[in-house]
Amino acid sequence: MPLPAPQPQVRVVTLKIDGQDVSAREDETIIEVARENRVPIPSLCYLEGLSVWGACRLCVVEIAGTDRLLAACSTRVTEGMQVITNSERLQRYRRTIVELLFAERNHVCSVCVSNGHCELQTLAQRCGVDHVKVPYRHARYEVDSSHDLFRLDHNRCVLCTRCVRVCDEIEGAHTWDVMGRGTDCRVITDLARPWGDSGSCTSCGKCVQVCPTGALVRHGTSVGEMTKDLKFLPYLSRRRHGQ
Amino acid sequence: MNLDELNEMAEGVRAADTGIAHEVRVCMAASCQSSGAGPVLDGLREAAPSTGCRVKGVGCMGLCSAGPLVAVAPMDGGEPVLYRDVKAEDAQAIACSIGTAPVERLRLPNDLPFFSRQQKIVLENSGVIDPNSFKGYIAVGGYSAMVQALTEMTPAEVLAEVTTSGLRGRGGGGYPTGLKWSTVAKMPAEQKFVICNADEGDPGAFMDRAILESDPHRVIEGMAIAAYAVGATRGYVYVRAEYPLAVERLKTAIRKAKRSGFLGAHICDTQFSFEVEVRLGAGAFVCGEETALMASIEGLRGQPRPRPPYPAEAGLWGHPTLINNVETFANIAPILLRGGEWFAGIGTERSKGTKVFALAGTIRNTGLIEVPMGTRLRDIIEVIGGGIPDGRAFKAVQTGGPSGGCLPAAHLDIPVDYDSLRELGTIMGSGGMIVMDETSSMVDVARYFMEFCMTESCGKCIPCRAGTQQMHDILKTIAKGRGTRADLALLEELCEVVQATSLCGLGQTAPNPVLSTLRHFRVEYEDKLAATSA
C-alpha cells in the first residue's frame, strides 16, 4: 500500500458566520470563507489574486469577544470564532463610508463611462445609499488622457490601489504608485509623469480591468460602455504563485 | 568586562575630577539654546576661574520658560545654585560668585515646588551630565545595568525584572512592557529587531526630544538590555528629522559607545552583539504608528497596515520586532539596577513608576517635569506648573495630543494614571499637557486637532482620509457661528464611524478631541450654533 502523501501543516477549523456553521483552513481569511459560503461582505480594495490592503474598511465585521471591528480581508479565521457580518451598526457604518467616498471626489454616474458597470455604484445600491448626507466637496481633479489606449480620471478614483498592486504584483512593472497624503493622495505613473510618457508602462491594461470605477478606462468609450473583465486575475495569480 | 571593572572605570573617571570644587552647568538643550545658552556657555568658559572649576554644557533642567538656565554645583554633593534667564553679560558675575555669595538677582529659589515636587528617574541625569560625554555617563554609573544584565543575568531574569516592575509603554498605549518583551522573546526566529520610537509628533510634546538631548546613552543602554532579553542583534532608533540636536547627540553617543566596546560585536567581551542605527523620519506624524514606522524604516511609503500580525510576530522585514518608546527604554536601566520591586513601589496600583510630562500652554512654568504616576492633576498644574499667569482662570488641560482629550476644572483632582484618564475620555498619551485658560474656545481646540489629523492622515483608509476632512469642515463652520443642529448631529455620527472603522490608531483616535470637548464643554458648541437652527 502506498504511503499517504505528506500533509501540509495547516489545520481545519470550524466557525460561525452569521450563525451559520462553516469550515475553513486556518490560513484563510474571514472574507474568503464568507464568499465561499455565499455570505456577502461588501468590499472595495480587496480583490482575490492581489495582496491584502485593508484600506476601504467596508468589510469590517463584528467578532464575539472583542469590541473592535476587524477587517474581514485581513483577519484570519480561528477555531470557534463567531462572526457577524451584517448588523444594523455595520450597515450604518458602511453606508457612511460609501457616502464619504461619493462626497470626496466627483462621482457623477450619469456621465460616467462605467455607469452600470461600476463597483462603487453597485456597492452604494447594496448598502442602501439613497442619498448622501455629508456635503459634496466639489474639488477639482485632473484627467490624464496622454496614454494611447487608456485614460485616467482622478475624479472617479477611490484610491483602492488595485491598479498599484496589480501592476506591481502581477505585471511586475510597478508603473503605478500613490503620492501625497490625506485627501491630496493620488495615483501616479512613474514619478508623477503623464501616463503617456511613462517608460515603465507595458500598456497591458491590467490596471484598467481591475479598477472598480471609471477612474481607469479605455479610450473611445461613451457613457455606460466601459465594462471590465476580471477573469484573468485568479488565473494569472495562481500561475504567479506556482499553483 | 564585568561589573567590578566597570565600577573601577567609573571610579577612575571620578578620580580625575578631584581638583574640581565647583561645576558650572549650562543647559544646552534645544529650548535653552534657542534663548541664547550658547553665548552664555562661551562667556562662562572664558570668565570662570581656571582652577577648581569646570564649565560644561548639560541637558534639560526642566524649567524651559526660565531659560537659559545655569547651575553652579559644588562637587561635594551640596545644593546647586540655580540661575534663570542668564545672558552672556551675566557670565562674569556668575563666575565671580563661585564659592562665595550667589548672584541674587538671577537666582531661582532652591525650594521652588517646580523642583521639589518632582521625582526623577528617567531624567535623573538630565541637566547633570554632559550628553556628549561618554565618560560623564560612566561616572554616574552608566552602563552598569547593561553589564550586570550581560554578565550576571539570563535573558529570562531580565524579563522577569521588567515584568515585576509593572512598567507600561510610555508612548501612549500603555501596553505592559514586560508582556511585550516576553512575546518577542518567545518567538522562534534567527533574526529579531529592537526599535526605539522617537518619532514624537504630538503638538506640545517634547519629552522624547529632551531625553535624547540630555541623556542619549541611557536610551541606548535600555535598547541593548531589551535586545539581550528578547534575543535581538540589531536595533534602530527612528527619530524625526525635526530634532537635529537630538539626532546629533544620539549619533555621537552611538559612536562613542561603539568605540568603547559598549555596542557592536561582543559587547564588553561577552557573546552578545548589538548594532544600533539611526533612521530619520521625514516629517509624517503617522510614522509614529508602529507599522507605518517599520514600513518607513524598510524604505517604503510610511503608512500603516492592518494588525494582527503584530510587530512582535511579524515586524521589520517580517521578523519579530520589539518596538518601544524613548521614555520606556530610559526606564530600563534603573529598573535593573534597583530592582523591579522598587519600581513597582512607585506610582499607583495599575500605573507604576514615574511619568515625564511636557507642560505647555498658558501656564507659568512651562517645561519638562517628572512625577510619580497618580500625582493629582491639580498638583501638576497649580503647584508644579505654578498655575495660570495674568490672573486668568484655568479652563482645561489637553493631554494625549491629537489622540487625547480635554479635562475641565471639575476633574482637576483626579490622579494622573492610565486608567483614570481613559475613564474621563482622554488618554495619558506620550505626556504632552497643554494648559488652557478661560480665553480659549474649546471648539477651536477641537478644530485645531482635527486639522492636524486631517493633514497628517496618510490617506490609506477612507474613514480617516475623508472623515477627518468632513469633520474639520463641520468644525470650521461651527467655529464661525454658522453651524446648525444637523451639523452637530452629523459631526457626532462621523466621530463614531471614524473611531470604529479606521485602520490605525491615528484614525481611530482622531475624533477623541471632539468627543471629549463635546462631553465636557457641550455648551460651547451649542452656544456657537447659528441662531436660526433652533
Descriptive account of the structure:
- The complex is a heterodimer of chains A (243) and B (534).
- Chain A has helices spanning 30-36, 88-104, 119-126, 162-171, 206-210, 232-240; strands spanning 12-17, 20-25, 60-63, 70-71, 82-84, 143-144, 150-153, 176-179, 186-189, 216-218.
- Chain A is α+β, with helices and mostly antiparallel strands.
- In chain A, a hairpin with a 6-residue loop joins strand 8 and strand 9 (186-189).
- With 534 residues, chain B is an alpha/beta fold.
- Chain B has 4 domains: 17-109, Glutaredoxin; 142-156 and 172-332, NADH-ubiquinone oxidoreductase 51kDa subunit (Rossmann fold); 346-437, Ubiquitin-like (UB roll), CATH 3.10.20.600; 442-533, NADH-ubiquinone oxidoreductase 51kDa subunit, iron-sulphur binding domain (de novo design (two linked rop proteins), Up-down Bundle).
- Chain B contains 23 helices and 14 strands.
- Chain B starts with a helix and ends in a 6-residue tail after the last helix.
- Chain A binds chain B through residues 52-57, 60, 69, 71, 74-76, 92-93, 96-97, 100-101, 103-104, 133-135, 137, 158-159, 177-178, 180-185, and chain B through 284, 286, 301, 305-306, 308, 454-463, 465-470, 473, 490, 493-494, 497, 500-503.
Write a concise synopsis of the structure shown.
Chain A has 243 residues and is an alpha+beta fold. Chain A is built from 6 helices and 10 strands.
- Tell me about the biggest sheet of chain B? 5 strands, mixed
Number of helices of chain B: 23
Unreliable segments of chain A (pLDDT under 50, ≥5 consecutive)? none
Structural class of chain A: alpha+beta
